[in-house]
DNA sequence: TGGCTTATTTATCGATTGAAAAATAACTCG
DNA sequence: CGAGTTATTTTTCAATCGATAAATAAGCCA
């Protein structure tokens, strides 16, 4: 107080590439919390720089948002999962457990969940891209593998009813992430246990009831 | 074109109460599409009136939004559902089918779904209110009724694991609404069939596997 | 050290925001 | 018809928005 305190914090100059990367990383945090409609000034405050500096690195707010999307969504999918899900050396039940634990580790983060729903409500094409990914790379594979493991060697496509039922299982697991990161509601701490029970019920359920596959 | 067309549309004067009700109804449509960050001018345009007129009926934009919340969320829950779920004259499976068809009829609308997620992301208290409602009035009841119907007459509470499994079932059904109205992705047209299969799998699954209730 | 580059800030613009005040016009009732 | 009430519009304001231009200062290399 009595000292002539230098109020101004020292200004570090970062290299162009460092700064850019830092902006995107922190913009993800910021937009995940405040939504994409928040101002570039508040974003700059969160970054500890002035607002016009953003425009040295991104031509417009929308371009920055696009980079945020890309960084958040890109490369979340591990190519090993493609192999894992189709690896008939291992029992399907075990494959699914391993997959869903890894998959939910990847997407059950506050940033991913919130940005996914923010962008979904804004009508970005991410909706259909995600649905397509889940359909092709997860659910249809699960149904194919299930038929194979249970002796149905026909190459038939999954029926819409079967696919829907797989969606209910997948959605139930996904909804755990929504409850935790969007609703911020307490959930069962043991995520692996939740997945295990969900898979048990799904596999037992479609095995024991004819309903799911009736006409 | 050649006629001296009266560009100005006639201005009807509505009574105070009529106008207010109309504003809220159309504000629900508008905010459900555009989000709550959209301007009051655009809202007024959608209403066919001038922007300052809004401020005769609502002291601020936030007050209007609150009324939108109330109108959308209030009285969606039918008291008859409380009775239905606990009606031990009917088999549980049948009760659940009837309930979920009616419940999803009530909330699987574009307005409800989108406003629910918009407000949820904004950190309104609706999150916890909804989770509490589902916990108390739906899931815990289902688990109690299930135990009763299967001869477990103890008055014990549901374990966290059991509750979580019920959440997965409920979330799976709820996710159908998200896919349809948020992702705008094609879903199985037969909603009753989706519910039926989801319930079959859930009830068969927890009946046939010990996993859900192990430990 | 001195000159050059460039990251960063200061200052500012026009458009849009929520909101208030004043002016107008439609309706009611005598 | 005519005065009073009130729903609605016109006008306007201060704050904030995304974005640009000019000024400044930190770092680099001779």
Question: How does this structure look, described?
Answer:
- Two copies of one chain form a homodimer.
- Chain A has two domains: 16-72, Orthogonal Bundle (Arc Repressor Mutant, subunit A), CATH 1.10.10.60; 75-209, Tetracycline Repressor, domain 2, CATH 1.10.357.
- In chain A, 67% of the residues lie in helices and 0% in strands.
- Chain A has helices spanning 16-34, 40-47, 54-57, 61-73, 79-85, 92-107, 110-121, 126-149, 160-181, 191-208.
- With 215 residues, the first copy, chain A, is mainly alpha-helical.
- In chain A, helix 8 (126-149) packs across helix 9.
- At the A-B interface, helix 7, helix 8, helix 9 and helix 10 of A face helix 7, helix 8, helix 9 and helix 10 of B.
- The structure holds a DNA duplex (30 and 30 nucleotides).
Please supply descriptive tags for the structure shown above.
67% helix, 10 helices, homodimer, Arc Repressor Mutant, subunit A, elongated, DNA-binding, mainly alpha, 2 domains, 215 residues, Tetracycline Repressor, domain 2, disordered N terminus
How many domains of chain A, as an integer?
A: 2
Taking the sheet with the most strands of chain A, its summary is: none
- How much beta of chain A, percentage-wise? under 5%
Count of individual helical segments of chain A: 10
H/E element order of chain A: HHHHHHHHHH
Distance between the termini of chain A: 80 Å
Question: Helix content range of the residues of chain A, please?
Answer: 55-70%
Question: Which class best fits the helix and strand makeup of chain A?
Answer: mainly alpha
Poorly predicted residue ranges of chain A: 1-10
Global shape of chain A: elongated
DSSP, total strands of chain A? 0
What is the radius of gyration of chain A?
Answer: 23 Å
| CATH-level-2 architecture of the largest domain in chain A | Orthogonal Bundle
CATH class of the largest domain in chain A: Mainly Alpha
Quaternary structure classification: homodimer
- Provide the residue-averaged pLDDT of chain A: 90
Task: Count interface residues per chain for the largest interface.
Answer: A-B, 50 and 50 residues
Give the CATH topology of the largest domain in chain A: Tetracycline Repressor, domain 2
